[in-house]
């Protein structure tokens, strides 16, 4: 990665982390309710019966209420498990809140571990992001798990990044390995990007 792109990404990630840290518990709860409603609408509109999602951290837009509700409605939800080789394994969400702490201190599901190929059977991918830009380019947190996953899929279903409303930017720094997304889900709206 060219040094100027790496520096720009680091600076933007630091700014986004700082902004997320300033949100109140009330703002986080309202954001989670909004994310849950938008994701429910997206699944209904897409007719998705199987999705991937992620267990949100305390500073991310909340996905846990959505996961519990989706599982309760019979939607199959796959959750990522980080591997030392940079790939993701998956586990089927069971609706409870039991988690392990993964390689990078992130929450991960318990239960039977499925290999990376399990993702080939989902109708919709819901992924974390630091930010996305108006062309659909996603910027993650720098470990590359989701870029590798998306880049390796032969037939990738629609991909939606979950971000706060202020994290849809005019442009994000990008490198050759970065992967675009179909759209973004925020607490207030769902945006579909033109494919570039």
From TrEMBL:
It comes from the Bacteria. It catalyses: (6S)-5-formyl-5,6,7,8-tetrahydrofolate + ATP = (6R)-5,10-methenyltetrahydrofolate + ADP + phosphate. The keyword Metal-binding applies. Keywords: ATP-binding, Ligase, Magnesium, Metal-binding, Nucleotide-binding. The keyword Nucleotide-binding applies. It holds the Pfam family 5-FTHF_cyc-lig. Its EC number is 6.3.3.2. GO terms for molecular function: 5-formyltetrahydrofolate cyclo-ligase activity. InterPro entries: FTHF_cligase, FTHF_cligase-like_sf, NagB/RpiA_transferase-like. Its cofactor is Mg(2+). Belongs to the 5-formyltetrahydrofolate cyclo-ligase family. This is 5-formyltetrahydrofolate cyclo-ligase.
